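Quick start: what a row looks like.
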Amino acid sequence: MIDLYVYYKVREEDAAALAPRVRAMQARLAVEGVACQLKRRPEVRDGLQTWMEVYPATTESFAGAVEGAALDAGLAEFIQGPRRSEIFMDLPICA
């Protein structure tokens, strides 16, 4: 299992329009049993917020499903620059 983190920039004036789209997309993904989180950095730089979608304990193939869902939800209309994805995994427990 992996944890998927997707982050991107959003103009402050677009945040109110983007949030319901992301939440609706995540609600559709949650139906498949995936825990979804939406976060943002507290500071705003140059009129841009940094948002992060967090999907813990997913499969490696889930990243493709998230990007497809983002396309279907029309998120790109409100995102400045690319959506960047990072994958993390748990370290094994030492005995």
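That is the whole record. The chain has one domain: 2-88. The CA atoms of residues 19 and 38 lie 9 Å apart.
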